[in-house]
Amino acid sequence: MLSVKGIEVFYGDLQALRGVSLEVNQGEIVTIVGSNGAGKSTTLMTISGIYKPRRGEIQFHKETIHPYPTAKIVSLGIVQIPEGRQLFPTLTVMENLEMGSQFPKAKQVRKESMEWVFKLFPRLEERKKQLAGTLSGGEQQMLAIGRGLMARPILLMLDEPSLGLSPILVKTIFDIIREINRQGTTILLVEQNVFHSLSLSHRGYVLENGSITMSGTGQDLLKNQHIRQSYLGL
Amino acid sequence: MNLNLILQLALSGFLLGGVYSLIALGLSLIFGVMRVINFAHGEMMVWGMYVAYTILLWTGVDPFFSFLVSAIILFILGYLLQRSVVNRILDFPEAMQVLPLVGMAMVFENSARLIWGPDYISPQSKFALSSISLGPLTIDTPRLMAFSIAILITVLVLVFLKKTDMGKSIRAAADNRLGAFLVGTDVNKVYAVCFGIGTACVGSAGGLLVPIMPLSPYIGAPFTLISFIIVILGGMGSLTGAMVGGFIIGVAESIGPEVITNIFHGLGVDLEFPHTMKQVVSFFILIVILILRPQGLFGGKKR
Ligand SMILES: Nc1ncnc2c1ncn2[C@@H]1O[C@H](COP(=O)(O)OP(=O)(O)O)[C@@H](O)[C@H]1O
Ligand SMILES: [Mg+2]
Q: Given A71, A90, A148, which is nearest B175 (Cβ)?
């Protein structure tokens, strides 16, 4: 469904991605793990069209998408829930959700989408009139996911959704991700929480210094000696 | 001290303050969303004045109707200016954003001079000389009209921002530009519309001012300055601040010289504080407010 082919991305002279290739198939949960600064966020931002690769190609359903503006990529069904959430703090919870569904196809089903989101996150419904900036960290992460779902994504990309959350909330968020996937949305997950994310993934990639160094099923990667040493401290 | 005179001045300053609020609202909206200061604001207002004046001259339609045309034309000019110039300089350091916009101010000022000539004009509209008396006070009808329409436009702009999808997108893009991109907003279009709304505010204000004050190509710069003062004292980017600030400056400019002259006399100094120096009063208030509240009256929290 999504195929990233040898993309190289630069920040000025600094090369952040050195030929990253990966595939995501319909219905999968795929995780990219890697330490801080490896280039995980850059990869997602490039798929979203925020950064443009200097070399390489990104295809979605065989269509070359990397030259498109982000709005077009979102309307094709590739939606990112970014690191740090990037909510609209002075807009209400409802307004944040509405912002997630602004292109015609998503707007038509806005009401149904909102019911879906409120069913996944009853907390958000209780707080729908509240300004997003006044929510707790966990609620903000729920809102970020909800806002992403409002676009009715085909491929949902999440950048470190568990960052800064308590262990209980981390579990809730991962349960929700699994549930969203079970309902038919393909997931590309970026995580430093290697154990949790690989456990629920079909496949995973290891990104180190801007290159993919390893890939395999979630279970295989969890058993791998290098991963156990470098990322799980075992 | 002549209390009636002061009250009279305060009233007429308050009415003009409504128009100042609208002007400052435009500047504040643009700054709040794009973090760019429209240094061509006053000059664009002058264009709004000339549009309404030209319509009055050609068709006899009063500026209190044709301000709508000023608003539309200035919306288009603002939209195009954002697309062609402002959008390219958004990520520049602030000092480098100043020059292109000051340059645009010169373009607007000098093109107005080319088209409409350099002279001061005081067009006579229907309402120009009528007034309503209210006890000991009189209210100029044109001022009252300008005030009422300015308030109406302000309310409409606020409702637009609050309720419509485009309005919400504008607020969202102001809150978090990256977030807006990622939910699929055409941020460049939203910015251009926002800039257009800001310049439409100042354009319609220009139309409303035609019956109140003489126009010339050169009165733009002082208005840029005054709207800048209003926005700073209200708190950069705060729409409420811009509106309240408009009234403060409107009243202060109007009563300031008279009050200061009275103070001079009270101190036994035989001096008149000239009306032409009313900007000194505005700056004085700005300085006092900034000393007490460096972030401005409503600054610090957004909107
Ligand atoms: N906006 C930026 N400007 C310059 N360098 C950046 C920027 N964003 C990220 N980088 C650099 O690119 C590399 C990859 O960063 P990132 O993709 O954020 O890594 P990760 O998400 O895996 O922690 C790092 O070396 C980081 O310092
Ligand atoms: Mg990251």
A: A90
d(CA B214, CA B125) in angstroms, rounded, equals 12
DSSP codes, B84-110: IIIHHHTTS-HHHHHHHHHHHHHHHHH
Give residue A90's pLDDT. Answer: 94
CATH of the domain at A32: 3.40.50.300
**8 A C-beta contact, residue B202 and residue B23:** yes
Write the ipTM.
Answer: 0.94
Asked whether the predicted pLDDT for residue B301 surpasses 70, the reply is: no
CB B124 within 8 A of CB B56: no
- Distance of CA A148 from the midpoint of ligand 2 (Å): 18
pLDDT beyond 50 at B302: no
Give me chain B's average pLDDT, please.
Answer: 92
Local confidence band at B33 (pLDDT 50, 70, 90 cut-offs): very high
Residue corresponding to tokens 């101190």: B267
- Res B123: pLDDT: 83
Ligand 1 mean position to B192 CA, how many Å?
A: 30
Nearest to B14 by CA among B179, B270, B258, B254: B254
Q: Domain span at residue A215?
A: 27-49+69-204+211-230
Residue range A97-148, pLDDT digits in tens: 999 999 899 999 999 999 999 999 999 999 999 999 999 999 999 999 999 9
Q: Tell whether A57 is covered by a domain.
A: no
Note whether A98 contacts B303, CB cutoff 8 Å: no
**Does A112 fall in a domain?**
yes
Structural domain contains residue A11: no
Ligand nearest to the CA of A36: 1
Taking a C-beta distance cutoff of 8 angstroms, is the pair B196, B76 a contact?
A: yes
**Total number of domains constituting chain A:** 1
E strand or H helix at B165, and its extent? helix B165-175
Q: Is position A191 within any domain?
A: yes
Task: Please tell me if residue B293 touches chain A, with a CB cutoff of 8 Å.
Answer: no
